[in-house]
Amino acid sequence: MKKRSPIKMSFLAALLIFVGFLPLFGILLFMDNKAMTTFFIILSIVMVSSGLILHFVYVRCPHCGSYLGRIMGSKCPFCGKNIEK
């Protein structure tokens, strides 16, 4: 299985979380329709949850497997190896 770049996965997860909040603005258009409001809330929760899961699962050092979190340098702070290789 191909190793994914933690920096690219972090960007993708942040994008998914950001886009996940956009359906909440759809609630403003459909305030009187309870079904559409519920749909937008569920859609938002699913997208934000997916982004968080993606972040916690794939933003790891490809060598030692340590969670990098918001640490995005060129080297892993735990093992010292290059993250992009």
Describe the structure.
The chain is mostly helical and 85 residues long. The chain has one domain (1-79). Helices cover 56% and strands 0% of the residues. It has three helices and no strands. The protein has helices spanning 6-21, 23-29, 34-58. Helix 2 (23-29) runs antiparallel to helix 3 (34-58). The mean pLDDT is 84.
Layout of strands and helices, then pairs:
Layout: H1 6-21, H2 23-29, H3 34-58
Helix pairs in contact: 1-3, 2-3
Mean pLDDT value: 84
The assigned structural class equals mainly alpha
In angstroms, what is the radius of gyration?
17 Å
Cα distance spanning the termini: 15 Å
Order of helices and strands: HHH
Question: Largest beta sheet, briefly?
Answer: none
Percentage of residues assigned to helices: 55-70%
How would you concisely characterize the structure shown here?
The chain is mostly helical and 85 residues long. It is built from three helices and no strands. The radius of gyration is 17 Å and the shape is rod-shaped.
What key phrases describe this protein's structure?
single chain, 85 residues, mainly alpha, rod-shaped
